[in-house]
Specification:
Elements: E1 13-14, H1 18-25, H2 30-56, E2 74-78, E3 88-92, H3 101-121, E4 133-137, E5 146-148, E6 153-155, H4 170-184, H5 192-214, E7 224-225, E8 240-241, E9 250-251, E10 255-256, H6 272-275, H7 281-294, H8 301-311, H9 321-336, H10 340-351
Parallel strand pairs: 2-4, 4-6
Antiparallel strand pairs: 1-5, 2-3, 5-6, 7-8, 9-10
């Protein structure tokens, strides 16, 4: 199979899981079901396009001539409620903010993601080599999702009934861009446990980007993914909770958050690529436990260990939870010795029921 981007195979990754949209699509209220069905159809189309691009190859993207190293190269486009990508350019790197708050949020979110990876881990953009960051806003009408398609970010405006503008939570922006980091490093297969690890990496670094931007410690953070995205009528706080997986929402329309916190409740399903958005709650919770046990800023010690594993070259594309856990214990020992970091990481995996070898 031909792969792209120097040997890395891109996948189509959305922030809202299919099981949530499936539930909405079954609503008797057309104001809820119609946008959900349209979003599912659009996601299916984009997923197919991504597969075709993987087969035929995508053009390589390089930093613009004369661009400074270790500086972001952002471009924001406006789809104007169409679906042709990338759309019309509305803001480039260094341009002043305009009147469109969605454009400004996307620009700021790309910058915050770039800054965390550079300042905390010495990584120059998501590929490590200054990859330009592109985002398209106002995609389609009532589009209830945001996605990374292997080349760029895309944001819907939401339907206003269940979901608001997808640029509102900065961790949504960080989550999707982190899929790019995974694509260029471990390239975790998007199915089953490796797929759940792929999703968890994006939740971990998306959450860290929010905490970094707010200057929060692990104790101060809410550990929610997508807080501020749900419309007022929804009974819920966010899309996911790393602190308490399974408690992010419990709504008469959306249903109940299905994420497990430990292996005791691991969900076996053929849907959602083998439950990648569901079982990601387990490694998410392990990271939360490790980070809060260590205290301070989560992107420093706990985040460094997770980053070391993701980018260290030993994590296989088909890695299971136990593989990641084992490598995280090894990484903690190699970087910090036999101290509290090793203890916190080891105990975190033990608490969620994942064995380390």
């Amino acid at each position: 199979m031909t792969t792209t981007n120097g040997g890395f195979e891109p996948v189509f990754c959305t922030i809202v899981p299919p099981h949530v949209l499936d539930k909405l699509a079954q609503s008797e209220d057309p104001a809820l079901s119609r946008p959900a069905r349209q979003t599912l159809q659009r996601d299916a189309f984009e997923r197919t396009q991504r597969h075709l691009t993987t087969v035929v190859g995508a053009p390589a993207v390089a930093a613009p001539a004369g661009a400074e190293a270790e500086k972001p190269h952002r471009t924001i486009y406006d789809a104007r409620h169409g679906t042709d990508l990338p759309g019309r350019k509305v803001r480039g790197e260094g341009d002043e903010p305009g009147k469109d708050a969605t454009v400004n949020r996307a620009y700021a979110g790309l910058g915050a993601t770039f800054e965390l990876f550079l300042k905390a881990y010495g990584r120059d953009s998501i590929d490590g080599s200054g990859l330009p960051l592109k985002a398209t806003v106002h995609y389609d009408r009532e589009y209830n999702n945001a996605f990374w398609n292997g080349e760029q970010m895309v944001f819907g405006d939401g339907d206003g009934e269940i979901f608001l503008d997808f640029t509102i939570p900065i961790d949504v922006i960080g989550h999707e861009l982190a899929h790019g980091v995974t694509q260029y490093t471990a390239n975790l297969t998007y199915f089953g446990q490796p797929g759940a690890l792929n999703e968890s990496m994006s939740d971990v670094f998306g959450g860290l980007i929010k905490q970094y931007t707010l200057g929060q410690t692990a104790a101060e953070a809410d550990w929610l993914i997508g807080a501020g995205l749900l419309a007022p009528r929804v009974t819920g706080k966010a899309l996911r909770s790393m602190k308490e997986p399974g408690t992010a929402y419990d709504d008469d329309v959306l249903g109940k958050d299905p994420q497990p916190a430990t292996m005791d409740d691991y969900v076996r399903t053929g849907r959602d690529n083998g439950g990648v958005h569901i079982n990601s709650g387990i490694p998410n919770h392990a990271f939360y436990l490790a980070a809060t046990a260590l205290g301070g800023h989560a992107w420093e010690r706990a985040g460094q260990v997770w980053y070391d594993v993701l980018t260290g070259g030993e994590l296989k594309e088909t890695a299971l939870f136990s593989d990641f856990a084992t490598l995280s214990v090894k990484a903690a020992r190699e970087r910090y010795g036999d101290g509290e970091e090793l203890d916190a990481v080891s105990k975190a995996w033990e608490q969620v029921g994942v064995r380390t070898l």
